[in-house]
Hints:
With 214 residues, this protein is α+β, with helices and mostly antiparallel strands. It has helices at residues 16-35, 62-68, 73-82, 84-87, 101-104, 109-115, 121-129, 139-148, and strands at residues 94-99, 132-133, 153-156, 162-168, 171-175, 181-191, 194-199. The chain has a seven-stranded mixed beta sheet. β6 and β7 form a beta hairpin. It is globular. The chain starts with 15 loop residues before the first helix and ends in a 15-residue tail after the last strand. Residues 1-23 and 36-56 have low confidence and may be disordered.
Amino acid sequence: xxxxxxxxxxxxxxxxxxxxxxxxxxxxxxxxxxxxxxxxxxxxxxxxxxxxxxxxxxxxxxxxxxxxxxxxxxxxxxxxxxxxxxxxxxxxxxxxxxxxxxxxxxxxxxxxxxxxxxxxxxxxxxxxxxxxxxxxxxxxxxxxxxxxxxxxxxxxxxxxxxxxxxxxxxxxxxxxxxxxxxxxxxxxxxxxxxxxxxxxxxxxxxxxxxxxxx
Length: 214
């Protein structure tokens, strides 16, 4: 892949070339639906995207996968500092928009130091909770919701705030009511208790005075 605009095509599947072609088709189809005005949204062709997408279920929990994947070491440290790691090891269904180590590196060193100060544990926990949804949302489900919502889909995090998903080219972009946004760079990392989507930016709920970007 030659540009970041194709990054969303990266999925964890043994049939990656096939998945890439299918994903491009689905995004194009959704874009067509979004671009066509209709007063009969309930009659839009109901395509079950899951039948096109091959997913892999593993026996690892979200936490166990984070522990085994070096690119999530910063996220893992933050989860442990707030005890959210225990939640992501429970049986259940969660969606985690997981900031990569590069995403955490966008935060200033001063921000990281303050967030990891024990007295600021709540601020760090709120920030991490902004990336977790108590439901399993595959990329195709997010895309399908956008198709039904005329290009927009909203989801509530366990922090209680709304995240909005939109499509930019073939990228799924997540944004909040505070002007923050992140792009899903790797989709559909299926685990025993949910799913992980890697994002390129740490979302920050509210006007968090502790957080500064480099």
